[in-house]
Amino acid sequence: MKSFTWSPRATTALRRGAAVTAALLVALSAAGVPATAAEGPSREEVYKQLGVAEQPVDYVILVDTSGSMEAKGRYDTVRSTLRTFLGGLNRSDHVALVTFDDRPEARYIGSAGDPAAIVARLPEKPDANGGTDIGAALDQALRELERDDAASVASVVMLTDGKHQPPSGTAYPTSSGPPWKALRKRADALAKRTELAGYALPLASGASGVDRLEDVVGNTVVLRPGSIQDLGRYLQRAGDSTRARSAAKLLADDKGKGVTASWKPAAVPDVTDGSATASVTFRSATAHVPLTVSDTRVSAAGAPLDVSGVPRRLTLKPGESRTYSVRLEGKPGGGGPFRHTEEASAALRVSGQVSSPWQKALAPDVDLKVPAVVGITGGPLNVRAEVGSALLLPGILLALVAALVLGALRWRSVNRPALTGVLTAVPVFATAIPERIPLTGRRVTFHPHGGGHGTVHGRRRRTAQGPRVDLMIRYVPDGATGRPDRVVCAPGARAVVGGLSFTHRLDSPTAGPGIADVRPEGPR
Q1: In what side-by-side order are the strands of the sheet with 340-355?
Q2: Residues of the chain where predicted confidence (pLDDT) is lower than 50
């Protein structure tokens, strides 16, 4: 026998596949979730969680006991099948078992708790000579459902193999007319306060009597078994449909309700450092239905912020609110380089697919109409941040001060240099001893003995021979008006202004007895 050897590539592929399978099983085991959990609960599990079994339902079962029901064992099949059907009802359900031939007769009215006892109330066999008064049977069914303590969900189940053939003297001699309209009016009024439906099961071909149920109860389903042996399956369909209607009644207020999200009110987050925390609350608006949000992503509109911290998938119990702490990263864009507080409003945005694990189980009988998107409630989140440079404005101010100081020093160096030497003053047309004005400081005020007053300050100039300091001499004689006359006197030179001749001497000789009243001034 020839041996078989795996190639290295095949061996590697098998090992990788085994590793992936093992990892998947470990992950499922660690999560405590069975492999079929993604399929969601079954309809029976939903009914159990919803408490459908505790919600009473009214059943009126109309059984044809006319002579034709003896044929082909129809009546015996009805008896045995009804027992199975009743066994699927809840003890809280209310059952009215009514037979009809020439006239209707209530065989049992009460709880559905004992199927065998209920079926035992049926006659042993049909009335061989009995007719089929469907109108009177429907009148009896409506009277049963019109009682004050009737349930909010009701079903009329009619089983017949013939057509409407009433005895003489009946209130419904034909298959139409005012009596039938009166029945329809009563059924419509009943349907306004209860979930009323009819289920008609024709047990033979040409059993047109089932059409009369459609004439009276607008919401009627005609179930057409291929043979009498299919009766059990179709009765089960009627029971399932009634339970679905009971579930729909309980879930009516949840229809169209979904998940909303909002910022949780708190202090204004400060994202000066590039991040901060906030809170987002998800709320379920349903009373019974669990909701799931898949592929959840949270973002902010109106502010350059990234939002993280919400799980990609979250499930909310009915009416549950769940708050998540989220991280905000980024900061509002600022205008200008100066340090200032920038504020922005971040509108909440949530993307994701909203669904319910109950949808698949209840479809198509119950459409929950769950909104596919998360609704946003509440206002935006206000955020703030300190943006711009904290050193820029002080730096600019310091630079301006430095520039002003340097400018002032430069101005003083040029326009108010230190004075040296002596200035002598003597009237132009007089022979007098010159008055001596010592030049000290940066500006000198003088008052000659002959009257008047004046000032002297220097101004630095650039010349071809190099820098020099000229004297700016202002003098106003006594009695003069207007602006004082001014003259420029070069170093060691002579200048005349206001009738006085001024001579600058760089040395400080002790010449002449007269010294003008001199008052050196500070820098100006």
Answers
A1: 314-316, 291-301, 340-355, 381-387
A2: 1-37, 511-513
